[in-house]
Amino acid sequence: MQFNAEVAKLFTQLQQSDSPMKFIPYSRLQSENLLVLLYVARLLAVIGAVLFVVAIVLFAAIPFLGAESATTIDMGNGMQMHPQFPVSRDYTALAIVGGVWSIVSSIALLVVSGICAAVVSFEQTYTQKRTSPTAEGVVK
Prior knowledge:
With about 140 residues, this protein is mainly α. The chain is built from three helices and two strands. Strands 1-2 form a two-stranded antiparallel sheet. Helix 2 runs antiparallel to helix 3 (about 90-130).
């Protein structure tokens, strides 16, 4: 019972609005001038994370996507035939290609998202330094 109370307390803390942990990428960044770029960075990060999960699912499914049990036709006198028609339902190659492309594209999207967030962060830092009341000769 004590474990459930601790878990409930943890979830209550996470639901508070000033919680440091949010499930929005780059939730601590704020920008007045580059708000659209910040939203693009967040969207790219979400898409990259989803593609990464898709890649993991595809790679995990590879053992289960193999061809169905090989069809063997007994032709008599110890001869067997393994027909190749209709096309076998072996989707392992498709899963491998999809998984590799998902991994590559998710990494690329996460890198571009990080670069966009870094630009927003630099702009935020630069704007705060230029408009702070303690800066010499800078009028807000």
